[in-house]
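>> Question from a student workshop board

For tomorrow's exercise we were told to take the sequence and the ligand below, predict the bound structure, and bring the output to class. My setup keeps failing. Could a helper post the expected result so I can at least see what it should look like? The ligand is adenosine-5'-triphosphate.
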Amino acid sequence: FDRMKEQTGIELNESQQQAVLHTEGPLLLLASPGSGKTTTLNMKIAYLLFEKRVSPDRIMAVTFSKASARDMSRRFDDYFSGWSDERVSFSTIHSFAYKVVREFMSREKIPYQLIEGGGNKGRLANGLPLHKTFILKKVYEDVNGAQPTEEEMDDLMSFISLVKNRMLEGKELEKVSCQAKNAPEVFKAYESFKQTEAEVTLLDFDDMLTFGHEILRENEEMLKKYQERFDYVLTDESQDNSVVQHEIVEMLAAPDNNICLVADDDQSIFGWRGAEVDKLLQFEKTYPDATVLTMTENYRSSQEIVHVANRFIKRNVDRYEKEMTTPNESQEAVDIHTFQNDEKQLDYVVGQIREKRGEEEVAVLYRNHSSVIPLVDQLDRAGIDFYMKDSEAKFFKHWIVEDILNFLRFSYNDSRIDILEKIHTKFNAYISKKQMTLLKNRQTDGSLFDQLLNLDIQEYQKKAIPKAKQTFRDINGMAPDQAIITIREKLGYDRVLRKMVDNFGFRADQLFGTLDVLIRIAGSCDSLKDFAFRLRELEELVKSAHSRESSLTLTTFHSAKGLEFDSVYMIDLVDGIIPSNDDIEDYRDGERETMEEAARLFYVGMTRARSRLELLTYHYLGNERVKESTFVHNVRAITGTKKTNHKEKENKVDTSSFEGMDPGTPIIHKTFGRGTLMEYSGDLIVIHFEDVGYKELLLETCVERGLLSKEKQEA
Ligand code: ATP
Ligand code: MG
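>> Workshop helper replied:
Here is what the output should look like for this input. Compare the format with yours to find the bug.
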């Protein structure tokens, strides 16, 4: 340990040392954020290599994602590259499983093809591309005799992933909620399609895990080979492993069971993808001789941040109770800023970053991918470079972006039939398919609107068409943001989208969110051409920012896991974003799982910060009035910060003795009995009652009627 300290500057504490030395037999290291889990794993690997002289290829170090495997490997190199260039491979369970699949398929001479993750090659005889979404759509249609909505497709994808990752079978499938019609049947049909319909076996992303698992289970010889190949199995971020992943790891580690799982149940954020924290709790059942160590001392963050995060996560019911502490100094208070709108928030963030440029590591964390595009735009205009953890180029490929560009193109030149073809159903001139065919056959030049007027048109079109023509001409002279607003409002694009939401199950928040982002970008462009050009430029920028280095990182909460920064700005903290509308809805329906996962995500975000943590929220998102995130509200209750420009209520009832209570405080209600305070939101309080579950109550009324009392703590 002395040599390690000399090399890395880190002096391991007692439990960390214990974990490092515990190399033989099963070990579960259950620990808080910043408590040195990843550090300890790295030290342990070094101990195995340099002290116990274990050969690097006998160690299997896995973690959740390729990105975190890279982060971990980089950290290891930072620490120990001086000692030797022996390299342990850090990888994911997924890529290991894929290796097993490849080996098996080539040994058995079974041809196969991947249908997910780029490079979708080949088609069936009927032209169907061998790609997951196409296949799933087709199978859905076969089963249900109708097309799936976008929402159903999203849900179906998650359903399949969840079923496979949790290894559910038969009746268990019925218990998983899924909005897609007959999801279990569609799933079965999808599975059999991949086995039988093409000339080769088709494999999606999750299949690599399920197949890999099956192969190891059924081929003793192959399993033995891999078991003998590795003497030590270590996994970081194990709280995000799914059942099938856990089982693969367990099989590999047998029979010696030199297995080390490192995890934090409070940071489990991939439940929707089948992660199973319960598996961790069963560790001692699986391995009766297991050692379980906990570490709760956070070396990363300031006292203020650790205090707030520790109190915050207690709002969750489904967790191991632990108290996170820190030996670190007190620094700045956790800051909450409320802005008038999202635009003001953006100005603030850019201003802050400009001030700090290069002096420290800064991260901006966001929940939704599209949130970052306006920020990218403004940072670039301010000449600030940045690194992006996720590749966000997908935004620019959305059909809404294409639609808007086509509207603009048509406004320059309304004689282009190829453009009209793409948008004629999307604005209020009500042009029919038949009219489009007639137009195409005429092959004359000049405004297509004028040509339409010469056709046999409907009565209402006689007014609508000249009006649309004029609007398009007007758009041509407008500022870009005004142009988009005109498309939405005057040309009826919003109404079309609304219909798509109602009739075809598109997601309203996604569609209108995309438009809001476009308007935001358009706001800083001088002309329509400038705007179109800017979009392409941003797309390139986003692509290149993904493979760049910078002291400024932009990332989603999910991808920030395991990382740390001096300053962290969490943006867009409003209800509907984090927690999401779905989380809120589930919660109202009495399901707390997704809300708790959202809280863990928020917690992951907060615990990334070393010295400074700022939570940013606003009153208006575009034109829409929004509410500060419930989670920010919780933090206020902890830090005692009042909302700024908050209207004082003229209530006569004094509710003050119930305000500022921590989530987790025991409460007694005269009607509902014993419960635990979950949150405040506005005038409402949410209590989880032992007998009747969740209730949202009006605080004022409860107090007025004397229904509430705090439960006396045992003296
Ligand atoms: P997370 O849950 O976020 O992944 P973690 O438990 O993996 O966190 P690490 O990233 O390993 O935590 O460590 C957090 C920070 O604390 C790092 O900067 C690391 O160098 C430092 N650290 C870890 N252990 C010690 C120690 N014993 N003394 C001083 N610093 C430490
Ligand atoms: Mg870690």
